[in-house]
Amino acid sequence: MKIQKLNWAGIKIECNKKTLLVDAVEDFTAYSGILGYPRTPLIHFSLTTKADYIVFTHLHLDHFDISIIEKCLKPDGKIIAYKKLEKYIPALTRHVIYLDYDEIFTEEGISIKSVFSLDGIGHDQTAWIIECNGFKIFHGGDTIWHNKFWQLGKENQNIDFAFLPINGAIVNFQALGLAYSTIPASMTLEQAFNAAKLLQARELIPIHYNKFSTPYYQPEELNEEDFEKLSKKISQPYRLVEDGYFISGE
C-alpha cells in the first residue's frame, strides 16, 4: 500500500493497481468566508489522478469536493459513502455504495469498513478502516473525541496508521445559527495521541491542521515540542507527513 497525503484531511491510497481517494479536496473556496484562505500551498492532484474509489467521511465541503468526483473518478469507479448520507446526496448519478456502521465493502483485495465517528457540530459522519495486502489504516475525518475508541481498537486490531485530526478548532458559527461554544469541534493533539493509542495504531499520522485560521475558525496552536512531549507521555509513535509526500505500508 502506498499513501500520499493530500490537502487538509485528504489522502490517496494505491494498492493492487487500484486508487482510492479519501476526503480528497482541491477547492476550498466555498468555505473561504469561514475558513479563510489556505496558509500553505495546496496540492493539485486532480489532473494526474484517476480513482477507482472515492470515499468521504461526511459532507462538509472541506472533506467532500464534488468536483473531484467529476474530475477523478473513473467511468466504472465507485463512490463509498455512509448510509445516513444517502438522503442528502441523491444528485450523485455515479455508482454509490452506502455502508452503515460496521458494514464492509470488499473488492479486488481491498476492504473498506465504516465505523463509528462523531462530528463536532452534530452532522452525520463516519470513520473508515481500509485494508489491503495485510496493511490497515484508520481515517477519522474531523472526528471529535468520543468513548468508542477503546471498542474500535479491540474490534479492528492491527491498525498500522491512524489518520486523525489534531487542530482542536474552536468554531464560531453563530452566523449559521449555531450557538458559540468553547469546546473544540475536532480533536486536540492530546486527544488524537490518546485515540491512536486506544486504536492500538502503530503510528499516528496527523491530518486536518496548519491550513486555516480565522476569527470564525480558531485552531489550537502547535509546535514540534508538543508532538514529542505527548508521544513520550502517551507512548504513541507518530509521523509528520507534509502535503504531497508519500508513505509506504509494508
UniProtKB/TrEMBL annotation:
InterPro entries: Metallo-B-lactamas, RibonucZ/Hydroxyglut_hydro, UPF0173_UPF0282_UlaG_hydrolase. Residues 19-209 form the Metallo-beta-lactamase domain. This is L-ascorbate metabolism protein UlaG (Beta-lactamase superfamily). The lineage of its organism: Bacteria, Pseudomonadati, Bacteroidota, Chitinophagia, Chitinophagales.
